[in-house]
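A quick aside before the break. I want you to see a complete sequence-to-structure record at least once, exactly as it would be stored in a machine-readable document. Don't worry about memorizing anything.
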Amino acid sequence: MFGVTTSDDYRPVAWMGRFPVDVTTILVGIHVALAIVACLLVAAGGGGLLDLMMFDSARVLGSGQVWRLATYAFIHSPMQLLWFAIEMYMLFVFGREVEKFIGQRAYIVLYAVLLFTPSLLLTLWGFSQRTGLAGSLALHFGVFVAFATIYPSAELLLRITAKWTAVILGAIYTLQLMAYHSWTDLAVVWTNIAAGFCFVRLRGAGPELIWWENFKARLQPKPKFKVVPKPVPTRREEDDISESVDPILDKIAKSGIGSLTPSERRMLDRARDRLLKGSK
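That is the input. The structure line, written in tokens, reads:
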């Protein structure tokens, strides 16, 4: 249920008085602290230091500056602090619900997947074209997609459900990037959408989707040998008649037909009639 802890792996990392501090709260604190540092650096004329954190495929491939695969997401421009505040609010609200549902370890893995998958993709892209990336908007949109996958019917602003909110925001984001031909950013957005959705679905969360279940069934290895049950021979009607009449025929052979009781005579007549019908 939305708002209720459902994972056995969820527990606060620490407590601030009566308030629990979980992984999501720590992540929000780190992003906010670095956003403040970025503002101070820009104000002091040291904004160039932020370039050391930005992802640049040429620097990663040419100079081995692998820390850029992760640090790009912790760059927050002072010119976009209002959107950054909204982004952190969404991470705090929806990220905590995802963490409660899938557990802390799985949540950390999810965040790492959303963090590294786009930069690794752009690194491969960098072999043919130089790519760059900065900011965490696509990463945290992937967290919201994970929330919408777990709670698709949760009503949000204006009573719009989570799944439709994710569809609308994803469509707006896609159209905006397509209009400016930002193909690498578009690839990052859809990579995180797919990663957030697939991560949750592969853990068995979310409503049943027939097409998704069929897709998983196709991925599962098929058995090389098919076990066929041994057919059980059916009893023929003649065998049943034989078993019921044999004792009567033995009695006739020993004592004559006059020794039969009325019930045995009826049984013999019924067996004769069934045999006659079966021979026609």
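Two observations worth writing down. The chain is about 60% helix and 5% strand. Strands lie at 14-16, 19-21, 55-56, 132-133. We'll return to this after the break.
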